[in-house]
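[Discussion] Sanity-checking designs against the backbone

I'm trying to build intuition for which residues belong where. Below is a structure token string of 70 positions. I'd appreciate it if someone posts a full sequence so I can compare it with mine line by line.
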């Protein structure tokens, strides 16, 4: 018997939040998000949405990386 695979649908409110983030905010979140953050949890659909949006805005740049620091 094959196990059933369920696709997790993203919450439209979370997708809207992602779409309203600026490039800098996305880079800051990417670098400093706490472990287990919903956008970076591989079992949730948000990572692909987040990554696609960040790349469409130009992704990380050396300038953003330096401004964020570590």
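Best answer:
Here's mine. Compare freely.
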């Amino acid at each position: 018997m094959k196990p059933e695979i369920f696709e997790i649908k993203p919450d439209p409110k979370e997708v809207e939040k992602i779409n309203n983030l600026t490039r800098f905010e996305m880079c800051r979140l990417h670098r400093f998000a706490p472990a287990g953050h919903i956008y970076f949890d591989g079992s949730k659909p948000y990572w692909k949405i987040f990554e696609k949006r960040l790349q469409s805005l130009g992704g990380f740049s050396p300038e953003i990386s330096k401004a964020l620091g570590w």
